[in-house]
Design brief:
The chain is an alpha/beta fold. The protein has nine helices and ten strands. The protein has helices spanning about 55-65, 110-115, 120-130, 145-155, 175-190, 230-235, 240-245, 250-270, 290-295; strands spanning about 10-20, 30-40, 45-50, 70-75, 80, 90-95, 160-165, 195-200, 210-215, 220-225. The strands form two sheets. It has a six-stranded mixed β-sheet with strand order 6-7-8-3-9-10, with helices on both faces. A four-stranded antiparallel β-sheet has the order 2-1-4-5, with helices on one face. Strand 9 (about 210-215) and strand 10 (about 220-225) form a beta hairpin. The longest helix has 21 residues, at about 250-270.
Length: about 300
């Protein structure tokens, strides 16, 4: 199989467990991903849908080579992401803008040049227009949304083959976000690049993905599947869920609401049946806590 025929991403039997340094042997380890298996073709744009804690960020971290797996196989462009990490893989997450190094008194033009902007001048200038960036901004004076634009320009100005986005568009205004998504779509069409995008903002996304996937509790309840969805009878088994999806214009937003609402219902029912420990929501408490007793005094 030639390099161009290889899947962009190929994951087989991946299970990932978070281990805590110094944890007791009796402590139960947290399984973040369970038996994940899927492949993505080059040129695809996959949207990951799932609630907080579903495992999306962990998966993207693993694809970016930032986590060592205990079980399974993870290949990007035919290469093992740990033993033979492929070039031109870009990961962009929210933690970057919180870094103290990105909030110093440095001019944006100097900042971009320090990471090689001069080598990608044509693409850099195109992104400066799309993201509406002023090269004279000082990093410590600009807003979180403007700082996020600088991060995106920095990450996208090289010719990447795989782009992993983890909630990174959360601070963008609707116009810049729309122009960014149009740019990414063109990159996948013209350069056969691949995008995997985890987000909780679904407005304006209906025409963006080529594939959509649903994660819940570390598992894929729906592996990456071509969008728009075709086989609704099998994908949405609950007739009410299917009816809600169709009445809502078959939008990604409606589908996400259906999936996440069902995820919560299943989890709450499992808690009631004692199949899992209740860890969210209000807790019944008959004995006042120490804090409550203290402040009542």
């Amino acid at each position: 199989m030639s390099g161009s025929d290889l899947p962009a991403i190929d994951i087989q039997q991946l299970t990932f467990t978070h281990t805590t340094p110094g944890a007791l042997l009796s402590d139960k380890p947290f399984v973040a991903l369970r038996d994940v298996n899927f492949s993505l073709p080059r040129g695809s744009r996959t949207l990951l849908v799932g609630g907080n804690g579903a495992g999306k960020s962990t998966l993207l971290y693993i694809l970016a080579g930032k986590r060592m797996i205990q079980k399974g196989s993870v290949k990007v462009l035919g290469r093992d992401v740990f033993k033979d990490f492929p070039p031109n893989v870009v990961y962009l997450g929210t933690e970057w803008a919180m870094n103290t190094g990105t909030r110093g008194d440095i001019v944006v033009s100097d900042f971009l040049n320090s990471v090689g902007g001069y080598r990608h001048k044509e693409r850099r200038d195109h992104l400066l227009d799309i993201l509406d960036i002023n090269l004279d901004w000082h990093m410590h004076h600009i807003s979180d949304g403007e700082r996020r634009r600088v991060q995106l320009c920095m990450g996208l100005m090289g010719e990447w083959d795989i782009l992993l986005l983890d909630e990174v568009t959360v601070d963008l205004d609707v116009l810049v976000r729309d122009q960014l998504l149009e740019f990414l779509q063109q990159e996948t069409i013209e350069r056969n690049a691949t995008v995997v995008y985890a987000t909780h903002i679904f407005d304006g996304l209906n025409t963006f993905p080529t594939h959509i996937a649903h994660m819940c509790d570390g598992q894929f309840t729906l592996n990456p599947t071509p969008w728009p969805l075709r086989d609704l009878d099998n994908l949405l088994e609950d007739p009410k869920a299917k009816e809600h999806f169709l009445k809502s214009g078959s939008s990604i937003h409606a589908l996400a609401l259906t999936w996440l609402s069902n995820d919560r219902t299943v989890r709450v029912q499992a808690e009631k049946e004692g199949k899992r420990r209740k860890v969210r929501g209000a807790r019944a408490q008959t004995i006042p806590s120490d804090s409550e007793t203290f402040y009542k005094k």
